[in-house]
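User: structure tokens for COKA1 protein, please.
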Amino acid sequence: GLSQYSSDPRTEWDLNTYSTRDQVLEAVRNLRYKGGNTFTGLALTHVLEQNLKPDAGARLEAVKLVILLTDGKSQDDANLAAQTLKNLGIEIFAIGVKNADEAELKQVASEPLELTVYNVLDFPLLSSLVGRLTRVLCTRIKEKSNKENADIPVNMGPQLSPTDLKISAVTSKSMYLTWSPPLRPPKKYRIVYYPSKGGIPKEVLLDGAVSSLRLSNLTSHTEYLVSVFPIYDTVVGDGLRGVTSTLPLSSPRSLRVSELSHNSIRLSWKAAQGATQYLVLCSAAPDGAED
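Assistant: Done. Predicted tokens:
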């Protein structure tokens, strides 16, 4: 599977899109470069939420690896997003080109860094990494497969996923989430939420015995994407997703004008609930319009 990113990550193809080596190579040849910013943290969150899910071809029993290729320093918190993936047992390999920040690559990558961090001066030099990286990746998959396959039965998918996400008690700055827990209680829940039109994802970790949460300090009149992931010792269950908009802030009403003079007016209005201050703007009417 492959995703490209700048300020908005884009899935090019999922893990289950192609089934042969030739198909994947043809897709790589047809790939169009996506220019722009470097929001690596947002990209890693996109990979977790969109690309490492069963409906995108991620198999529950399979080892999860992410290879990050970047030519710049991240403009958001890549370390926090990377740590979330690593906490879920997902291994990250970081490859830097040209202007990549090597200290950031080492923060993002999994241990041992001598196997997971690579840095080259220009794009053509990436070809020199292919042989070694292939051997390292295959070895890591075999090592992790032998350990994990003994722990997790293949047919546990439905038992690991919560259901029936409900979003209620929505205000201009908060909302309340509830869901039905899976048959097999998770160790923890990871809740991720962010504005649908772009923004830094925020997350909350909950004990697996809890199945509700109030999100607060939200922005008013904003559509939010919400995801709930169950976390087990060696695997992440399929997540629940929801979309809800916070309410707009209440407005002042019934504006009235009184006590007119040659250089002053008095304004009055019905109060807006929750307002602590008011900003009053006034300007002269354009030429020719009624004062």
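User: Anything notable?

Assistant: DSSP finds six helices and 14 strands in the chain.
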